[in-house]
Amino acid sequence: TSQSNISTPEISPNTTSFFKSVSNLPLTTTLKPKQLFQKSTSDADLIIKLKQTVARQKKTIALKRVTISKLKKNLIMSRIQHRQNKSVHFMNFLKFPSENSKTLVNMQVSHSKFKP
After folding, report:
1. Who contacts 110 (Cβ-Cβ below 8 Å, separation ≥6)?
2. Taking Cα atoms as reference points, which of 84, 82, 62 lies closest to residue 74?
3. How many Å apart are CA 38 and CA 25, to the nearest integer?
4. Which of 5, 61, 63, 84 counts the most CB atoms within 10 A of its CB?
5. Does 21 reside within a domain?
């Protein structure tokens, strides 16, 4: 008899009533595997998330515009600098009859109206 008591544990009345109440619960609806991990969000939450995404993307676009405009400006300045260096380098090879004529040509080359 001691063998039978060891193999079957005694269940308290509270435990039996708990098991009965659990067995009487309605079955849950079966969810598809994709739906198990989906967050249930309302339309308002979705709209807020979309607005935040749009605001974040506007910021990144603005930053990229700033970067592009800076790069364009640097490119233009480097082209102007290259052109000026080229003209200065070219001016050093020329022979002028006087310093005044060299100064006059330098002024004409460096002035923006006369640049091609």
Report:
1. 84, 87
2. 82
3. 25
4. 84
5. no
Helix/strand/coil percent split, the chain, to 5: 75, 0, 25
pTM over 0.85: no
Domain that holds residue 70: 59-116
Angle 92-95-97 (CA atoms, 0-180°, nearest 5)? 135
Q: How far is 24 from 18, CA to CA, in rounded Å?
A: 10
Q: What is the mean pLDDT of each run of 10 residues along the chain (116 residues)?
A: 59 83 71 65 82 96 95 89 72 81 81 58
At residue 109, φ and ψ (nearest 5 deg) are -70, -40
- The whole-angstrom separation of Cα 10 and Cα 52 is 59
| Contact by Cβ (8 Å): 72, 46 | no
- Strand ranges, E, within the chain: none
